[in-house]
Every structure is written in C-alpha cells, then in structure tokens.
Specification:
This protein has 225 residues and is mainly alpha-helical. Helices cover 60% and strands 7% of the residues.
C-alpha cells in the first residue's frame, strides 16, 4: 500500500512523493540491483521522482559498481532540483563512456540551473574527446548548441525535420535548453511539443526519454496533447 502527496522542490517542480508502507519497503529491499533499477525507472515514469531516487540508491548500495551507469538517476536528480548531485552522476557516467553526448548535455543543464543567469563557462563543461563526434546528426547539433560551439536553436529545429524521432529529440532538447537558460515560455512550448509528438505517442512510447518529456511537463504543470 502507498499514498502520494505533492511538495515543491525549488520554483518549478511539482513533485509527487509516494510514501510506502513497511510491507512494500520490505519487498523492495529483497529485490536484486537490476530489479531495483527497473523499479526506479517505473517509478519515474509515473512521476514518483523521489521514489525513483530511493530505488536507484538502493540498487547502488547493493552493487556499488552500478554507480557510473545510473544515468536514469541523474535525470531524477535534475527533476528533484538536486543539480549538483545530478552533475556528479553525469560526470561519473562520462568517465566510463566519454562519447555519451546526452550525459554531457544533461550535465551542462544541471550546471546552468545552478548558475544565477543560466550561463556556464565553457571551461566548466565536459566535452567529447578531441576529434570525436556523435554519429547522430541530431545529437551532434544538440551538443553544439549546449556547448556554444556554433549551432543555433534554428539549426536544431531544422535537424528535427529528418524523422519523427529526430523531431522529438529536437523539441525535447530545445525545451531543456530553454529551461536551463531561463526562457520558460519557450521551454513549455518545446517540451509540450515533444511530449505530444508522433514519436512519443507511437513507436517511441517505450523510449525512456519520451516518458521523461511527459514527466517534465507534468511536474511543471505544462499541458500537452
């Protein structure tokens, strides 16, 4: 058994915190690390961000080697407004997977949310190894936009015209970028478009990032179709 209530974490989140009874907690404690990661992902998809962090943390306590692979926990930290802890998680991840553009981008978003004006000096940003790039055009453009390497929001929007999945990811990261830089009206527009996109409602409905877009909107109170 469990019940939920809302509380505020920072100025934008409307987090749902689920309180679990002793029987449920005992059952959760008996799960394997892999099962706990799955539980954390399931809880996040329902909007239980704090519950997802608890499951991910328990998974790590049972298997410390999971630490640099819990990118899902990094997302949960972001939505719990735990930006420094989120940044730490993404940096653990990149240490073992230096070609992961999305972890680099989410770290930049965390750093931007911690700054007073939404800006991050480039020397504080992680970067891909010299001479390496993401083979996915859409993610290469996302990376360039967040890093300030030349891509514009218009470039990313244009890159999203190639396919339904690219359209989703373009809108998703345009929304995240706008939120990180304090442009909440634009963020709402883009993230709502991502959450209601053909990809999010169709073949990409099982993609964790489409769930992330929907959770993002729900926590912010942004309407999507």
């Amino acid at each position: 058994m469990c019940f939920t209530h809302r509380f505020h974490a920072g100025s934008q989140s409307r987090l749902l915190m689920t309180v679990y009874d002793d029987k449920t907690r005992t059952l959760v404690e008996s799960l394997s690390p892999r099962q706990l990661v799955g539980l954390g992902m399931q809880r996040f998809r329902t909007g239980d961000v704090i519950g997802s962090i608890e499951a991910f943390n328990l998974a790590e306590r049972k298997d410390a080697s999971l630490r640099p692979y819990l990118w899902q926990r990094g997302l949960s930290y972001y939505y719990a407004d735990m930006f420094q802890t989120g940044s730490d998680q993404f940096r653990y991840d990149v240490a073992v997977n230096p070609l992961d553009v999305e972890e680099i981008v989410w770290d930049i978003a965390c750093l931007a949310r911690m700054s007073k004006d939404g800006t991050v000096p480039q020397e504080k940003m992680m970067a891909l190894p010299k001479g390496r790039s993401d083979r996915r055009k859409i993610m290469a453009t996302v990376y360039s936009l967040f890093r300030g390497d030349g891509a514009t929001e218009a470039d990313l929007a244009a890159a999203g015209l190639s396919s339904d999945s690219d359209e989703f990811y373009a809108n998703f990261y345009l929304g995240l970028y706008a939120e990180a830089t304090g442009e909440l009206s634009k963020a709402s527009h883009y993230m709502s478009a991502a959450a209601s996109s053909r990809y999010a409602k169709g073949v990409g409905s099982t993609d964790y990032m489409t769930s992330c877009a929907k959770v993002h909107c729900k926590l912010r109170g942004w309407v999507y179709a």
